[in-house]
Write a structure and sequence with these properties.
alpha/beta, Ubiquitin-like (UB roll), Cytidine Deaminase, domain 2, six-stranded mixed beta sheet, five-stranded mixed beta sheet, disordered N terminus
């Protein structure tokens, strides 16, 4: 990846970005105590920031450069470039960091909040992008990224074949039980507002390598995946994926676009998530707590 003065993508080494916008903001609130029929005095509360972000693509088509808006998602500002690149990986538009030449914010920041809400991703010339196949041009809600899909056929997109045998990733049950507490400790913005989801990459010894937060659970995972791609490294290689909430089909599908074979969620999985994990040879853990968890697929990777 090439680096431009104002861009955030660097050549497989580092990222130089402007300070990230605040992920939380104070708003006015009136507090009501359960034991009182009268409203308390006016106060303020810290809430998670949610703003729309448009993703635009610059790509080569018919020997000419074209630019097209492909998605609008509601997200927590911060790590926007990671979010855009991770989203493209999940949609199958790119396979690795070298498919991206540059990422930058477009246009001026919003006049009222000073937040950049448009990100342009420039694809390398060798990337074959089918604009008609990617129909996710409509609004995507922060709670369900699949809502913007134009058809169920798009949800059942072709997943890449795994090269060689499944990764040899195993983890002790005791290590798994300690992960939720480690996750909470590292969720700095969640501790401030209680309003953010998290996705994290963890090692077999329980160390959390990376963590990303967002108001949307699918955005948090896209940010995590994008962080690897911007460094031009394979997402979630030799690590498991830890989710702060439920394991939906879309999240397991995004995980299937990476190198991991292990997904652990604090919440429950959906039926389609279990089916996909079984089909892809994933270990899928749900209801992960300090006193136990459920193993839905491939328990052989967990040592007692």
């Amino acid at each position: 990846m090439n680096k431009r003065p104002a861009a955030a993508i660097a050549p497989a080494s580092s990222i130089a970005v402007a300070p990230e916008p605040a992920a939380s903001r104070r708003v006015a609130v009136t507090r009501q105590a359960a034991a009182s029929s009268k409203s308390a005095a006016d106060d303020t509360d810290l809430v998670t920031v949610e703003e729309p972000m448009e993703v635009r693509l610059s790509f080569l088509s018919g020997g000419m450069r074209r630019e097209q808006s492909i998605s609008v998602t509601m997200r927590t500002p911060g790590n926007d470039f990671e979010l855009a690149v991770g989203f493209l990986r999940g949609e199958g538009v790119i396979q690795g960091g070298r498919d991206v030449v540059d990422v930058e914010h477009c246009g001026p920041p919003s006049p009222d909040k000073g937040i950049h809400n448009v990100v342009k991703v420039e694809l390398a010339d060798h990337v074959e992008f089918d604009a008609e196949a990617l129909t996710r041009h409509v609004f995507t809600s922060s709670s369900c990224g699949v809502c913007g899909k134009a058809s169920l056929d798009a949800v059942a997109q072709q997943l890449p074949d795994r090269p060689g045998p499944p990764p040899a990733f195993t983890v002790d049950a005791a290590v798994l039980r300690n992960l939720p507490e480690r996750l909470r400790t590292m969720q700095t913005e969640f501790r401030r507002t209680g309003g953010l989801h998290a996705s994290a990459a963890f090692r077999p010894n329980g160390r959390i390598d990376r963590l990303r937060e967002d108001v949307g659970r699918h955005n948090a995972l896209d940010k995590l995946i994008g962080a690897y791609l911007i460094e031009d490294s394979e997402p979630l290689a030799e690590t498991g994926l830890l989710l702060s909430g439920r394991a939906s089909f879309e999240l397991v599908q995004k995980a299937a676009m990476t190198a991991t074979c292990f997904v652990a969620a604090v919440g429950p999985p959906s039926s389609l998530a279990v089916e996909l994990a079984q089909e892809r040879g994933f270990t899928l853990v749900g209801f992960l707590k300090d006193d136990g968890f459920n193993i839905y697929t491939h328990p052989e990777r967990i040592r007692n």
